[in-house]
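User: Please predict structures.

Assistant: First:
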Amino acid sequence: MIQLQQVNKVYRTQTVETLALNHISLQIEAGEFVSVMGPSGCGKSTMLHIMGLLDTPTSGKVIIDRQDMHSLDNKNLARYRNEHLGFVFQSFHLINDLPVIDNVELPLIYRRQTGGTERRSRAEEALDQVGLRHRIQHRPSQLSGGQKQRVAIARAIVGKPRMILADEPTGNLDSVMGQEIMDVLLKLNRELNTTIVMVTHDESIARQTHRIVRLFDGSQVM
């Protein structure tokens, strides 16, 4: 489904050049659940952002569904992200002033063909899938950390993406809550065949996925 071909990422300032990713070549098949591990600063999040079209490589190619993403302009990249990719972050990124249902609907607002009734129906369905339909009108401040992450996952899947990119989704949670979130992701992967790429520091979480990709100093460890 997604290929990185000899991807490099260099960050430059006036005085410093940092190689964040060094010739990364990786292929992830549709329906795989892959975890990415490595020490802090090794390039895990950078690689995830490049896969998610939130950042661009300095050199190399990102190919999704056999299409070179470099060939798309910014407008079409944004449309592809919105329609095919879902994102889950460690810090949830929920809007505290909005109830849960409105937070989940947000990605659909940017799809002009999706009307308000359909948005609400799909948001309710997504909350059903993560076991939080009963919290529809609660605000994020009224939820536990695990519940907030479930809302974030519902928001990621509401658009029925082919791939979810999760950056430390259990990182702010205790071990019990973390496993609950992992169980939700495993269920989505198993029942919906959703491709998932997840950055994690937790070896016990990573071992539950199909495959572990390890990075060290921007390079893939074979």
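Second:
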Amino acid sequence: MESSTVAGPAWLVLPTYNEAANIAAIVEAARANLPDDARVLIVDDNSPDGTGGIADGLAATDPAVEVLHRAGKEGLGPAYIAGFHRAIAGGAGFVLQMDSDFSHDPADLPRLLAAARDGADLAIGSRYVPGGGVTDWSLLRRAISRGGSLYASLVLGVRQRDLTGGFKCFRRRVLETIDLDAVAAKGYVFQVEMTYRTLQAGFTVREVPIVFRDRQVGESKMSAAIAAEATWQVPLLRRRLRDDHPRTSGRPRA
């Protein structure tokens, strides 16, 4: 693909924990769908299956790939925050994030990046807008996921339909403006918190339809405890951030 923009290159942050079976293929697919000047940052939490070593091998043969090794597994949120800091320090103009297990289709990366380049401060790959969807999930898991997003949007008072989705593209100014080190969520509520903080800071959010599929290789990190986390963390998030930002000034666009 062609170069991105004068605003700075795109960086893709890939958090990994035990993704040895997927990491080489997901990096190859991402590189094929990103601009030539884009960088891929693998953030590995000391995976016992050797993911970090494989990532180092990829970085040794491709100067556009970088690895950030962390001491251990601290949760999705801290891994992303560390990756965001590194991307900003490295001059990123746009910072993308996605799962490392092909649940998010790398072919959708250009559409998220295009939405951000077209003016969205945050572009979210959304399963729950027209054109989006989910495959390979049971009816129960679909109900839990959609219900979780609906619950979060009602509690927080925002219009986004897929608050729990983790396929995103931030403009640099968003990550520079919000206080990344104040982000409290460590699990999947991290996705909700980042979008809510973006809106509370007055930025625009656009949902881009995607089709999400269940991982084909490896074990899912999702559990009942993770799903239940939102029931008490989302109201606390609303209370904490509304105290800091009394009025939601963002005007989200579907």
